Amino acid sequence: MVKRRSVGQLYALIALPLLILLLFCYVPMLGVLISFQDYSIFKGFFHSRWVGLAVFEEIFRNKSFWNALRNTLSLNALNLVLGFPAPIALALLLNEVRSRPFKRLLQSTLYLPHFLSWAIIGSMALQLLGDHTGIVNALIERAGGTIIPFLSNKWAWLFTYQGVWIWQSAGWGTILYLAAMTGINPELFEAAEVDGAGRWRKMWSITLPGIAPTMIILLVLQIGRAVNIGFEQPYMLGNDLVQNFSEVISTYVYQVGIKSARFNVGTAVGLFQSVVGLVLLLGANAISKRSGGEGIW
Q: Model-level pTM greater than 0.90?
């Protein structure tokens, strides 16, 4: 009797969070109906006219959408190559720091950019990397050099964007890897020391294999987000000169779906993103499991 009562208390404890999840995450999913309608805010989606797949046909005929999709995939692919290894390398180096106070200071310093909004980061990038007003280019000009168009040249902007993104997120991304390292059996390191292994050998042969399951799970999740980029990053760092590279799906939805009040188009693009992301996630997970690695389920 006591056991049933305790189980009932546990169910009562999670009832409110489940209700909030249902109301704010699942009920709003009914809004995807807008993508199949000639939606009018005055009629609502219960009375707007159904148009089937006409909205999707319009999107797929739009060159701007394909340009935004290409940029989204390109930026995410570049981030996968440059950004994904960054927190791993940083975590490996932090794990080798022996002084606890110094390690805590480093971690606090590296975590700090994560808590800055992209509005602040975008303003900092403009003040530092602007063509004629930025501090970096001002120093280059004073030294007699030629300014570097960090934010006005498409290719330079591409790597500037990635560099700023890595600076903002790499420190925070080390948390999971450092947590995974604490689960490695310390006897493995002791045995490696007896065999004469140095720090680099232990890092390569023990630490990296020990965090490999975490790396695989995070890699699968990142592949699942290949068609999704947050709105703030490209919007704050982008401008008209680099629009061919900075226009991604999230900014496209803002321009077409919200500013032009075409909510059905914005919803359709969001539904397309979700479906493609789900397919990529399932595919990456299946490939990971078939290759003998770990999966997210």
A: no
